């Protein structure tokens, strides 16, 4: 056999083999993408089902709540009572809603583990408010979800009551603020330090603003939990005797704080301050809707505040 014929056969062999391997790789990638897509769809559907439970519960619709179980599903409440089948589960929730007509629930899904294409373990936490005794009920749950006729339904749910979260747990999301921060804007330098105080029940923020000509303004802010309002609150005290309070509302990656106070000279102040976390080492601060003594002030620019590097 000539060298030319050997080369030709080798080239043909490569040409025949390469498409097979390439197509096989493409098929493998496509198959993995399809599996990932199916899993994502399942996780989304289970989360949607949990939200449907919240909606039905908060509307006091016992029938809609029970319909989220399988026909022979089981529910064990936080006192250990067992209810089997949609009729028993509906009756249990109907009794709850009759005794507590204003009751509401909040659900936080902590994890969803797909056990197979048609079964999953969901775990999370609940907060039930507006109950007859006036005290909110904190709980945890584990639910086995199964897929029937293309829809995810609860086959088994077990609730348990948990203790009241500590004050620190309610403001633990502020942990990333702890440390020293600084920013410079138009010749003005802002420096602040945040630290835990009072057994981590509050964050104390001390700050100093130095103007272009060296004039300084300093103050202290305490950030904690207001149990009556049920939200984060801050208390500001400035060196000139001014003070303000702010109610903080969570937003995506941060908070807005509605501030009301008074200057050291006795003029009322109002503003809405927004704090948006960029990453662990930077956040954006801006003050809008500002006024002093009833006179509106322009919004501030957005200021990027960065964490100071730790000293060696």
From TrEMBL:
Keywords: Signal. InterPro entries: DUF4440, NTF2-like_dom_sf, Steroid_delta5-4_isomerase. This is SnoaL-like domain protein. SUPFAM superfamilies: NTF2-like. Residues 1-24 form the signal peptide. Residues 46-154 form the DUF4440 domain.
């Amino acid at each position: 056999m000539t060298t030319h014929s050997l080369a030709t056969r080798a080239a043909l062999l490569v040409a025949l083999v390469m498409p097979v391997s390439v197509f096989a790789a493409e098929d493998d990638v496509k198959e993995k993408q399809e599996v990932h897509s199916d899993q994502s769809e399942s996780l989304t559907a289970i989360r949607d089902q949990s939200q449907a439970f919240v909606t039905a519960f908060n509307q006091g619709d016992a029938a809609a709540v029970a319909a989220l179980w399988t026909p022979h599903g089981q529910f064990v409440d936080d006192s250990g009572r067992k209810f089997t089948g949609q009729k028993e589960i509906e009756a249990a929730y109907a009794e709850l809603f009759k005794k507590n007509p204003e009751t509401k629930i909040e659900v936080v899904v902590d994890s969803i583990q797909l056990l197979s294409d048609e079964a999953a373990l969901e775990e999370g936490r609940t907060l039930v408010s507006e109950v007859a005794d006036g005290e909110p009920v904190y709980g945890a749950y584990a639910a086995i979800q199964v897929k029937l006729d293309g829809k995810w339904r609860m086959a088994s749910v077990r609730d348990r009551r948990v203790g009241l979260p500590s004050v620190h747990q309610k403001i633990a999301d502020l942990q990333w603020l702890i440390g020293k921060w600084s920013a410079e804007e138009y010749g003005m330098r802002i420096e602040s330090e945040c630290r835990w105080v009072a057994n981590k029940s509050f964050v104390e923020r001390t700050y100093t603003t130095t103007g272009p000509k060296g004039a300084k303004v300093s103050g202290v802010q305490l950030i904690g939990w207001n149990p009556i309002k049920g939200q984060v609150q801050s208390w500001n005290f400035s060196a000139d005797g001014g003070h303000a309070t702010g109610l903080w509302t969570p937003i995506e990656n941060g908070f807005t704080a509605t501030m009301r106070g008074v200057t050291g000279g006795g003029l009322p102040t109002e503003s809405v301050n927004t704090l948006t976390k960029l990453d662990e080492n930077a956040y954006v601060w801006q003050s809008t809707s500002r006024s002093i003594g009833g006179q509106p002030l322009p919004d501030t620019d957005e200021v990027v505040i960065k964490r100071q590097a730790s000293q060696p």
